[in-house]
Amino acid sequence: MARPKLQFWFEFASTYSYLSVMRIDTLAADAGVEVEWHPFWLGPIFKAQGWDSSPFNLYPVKGAYMWRDMERLCAARGLPFKRPDPFPQNSVLAARTALLALKHPEGPAFCRAVYAGEFGEGRSIDDPTFLGQLLSSCGLPSALVEEANSDAGKQGLRDSVAEAMRLGIFGAPSFIFEGELFWGDDRLEMTLTRAAA
Amino acid sequence: MARPKLQFWFEFASTYSYLSVMRIDTLAADAGVEVEWHPFWLGPIFKAQGWDSSPFNLYPVKGAYMWRDMERLCAARGLPFKRPDPFPQNSVLAARTALLALKHPEGPAFCRAVYAGEFGEGRSIDDPTFLGQLLSSCGLPSALVEEANSDAGKQGLRDSVAEAMRLGIFGAPSFIFEGELFWGDDRLEMTLTRAAA
């Protein structure tokens, strides 16, 4: 029998996506659930809500809290945490590259490597050289970075954003099971329970 | 030895506060933690962030998701759930009354009764007669509703909002342990673990 399948929608600039990216494959394997990885870009979705930056920058009190919350959650989970500068990072190239990487079995490992660099070490993820190194370290061709900026690579991310909007996704991380939306790393367990039922 | 003490800040119009109000005393007793109940009012705090209504009304996509999320969480916890109309409810009278009720040991039971009416049955909580009935059913004098609208009653809620702002509270429910802020029903377990440590 086919395992139940979950869609995992994540944005490379998103702090809470880091938390889910680093644990979803382990938790899903334990629950017997298959994960489909969907990198996307929140820029146009936030713009449609009237936001021209991360809501954590637009609402500084909420932003200050988010950094402390991330510190606590990362400490509790044994994850390194370092704030990248600037925040949010420009995540477009990473997302385009990940869409290509995810056509290979090493795709999820590449995504984890990008987040580990960005939020574990505070590295900039708009640097093609850095992304190329991460691809190589995961056993993927570093030339995927250049391919990411081809017309087809750009269209890949456009299609992904359009599909996210069609699904009603408004933030990251988000999980979709049987058309139903679950938002936030805090809902990962509930989604897996639902999918495994 | 004195038990560790947690501050619980909640707003009577807040859906996610309903979730915490209905479970905090049980979870805290299990953890050996004492709970100080602090009703407050988000109106002036949201206004300071540029919002003149609930963010769930200002951002309809997020609002639609919140209602579905609440349905799922209430179902999972065996809590009845019915959306009050209008949302958000005017919570000022309930908060002023609760501040007086909480000077008695029956205060938390009164708060639970208000939320059970509002979000379990969809009742309006700005109705003094309804609030008086709930007070009586909890063994408290129904005259607390009139006292709530006295100068002292009004000042009580003003003081509570000022203290919430001083603590950096920007949403509800919030928990404070040793000066540190935890936001959202999703953080109740983490706060209790921290307090009990």
TrEMBL record, chains A, B:
Keywords, A to Z? Isomerase
Which is an annotated GO molecular function term of this record?
Answer: glutathione transferase activity
Q: What is its EC number?
A: 5.99.1.4
Q: Provide the DSBA-like thioredoxin domain boundaries.
A: 6-191
Fetch the InterPro entries from UniProt: DSBA-like_thioredoxin_dom, GST_Kappa/NadH, HCCAis_GSTk, NahD-like, Thioredoxin-like_sf
Reactions mediated catalytically = 2-hydroxychromene-2-carboxylate = (3E)-4-(2-hydroxyphenyl)-2-oxobut-3-enoate
**What are the catalytic residues?**
14
Family, as annotated: Belongs to the GST superfamily. NadH family.
Name it: 2-hydroxychromene-2-carboxylate isomerase
- Which organism is this protein's natural source? Seohaeicola zhoushanensis
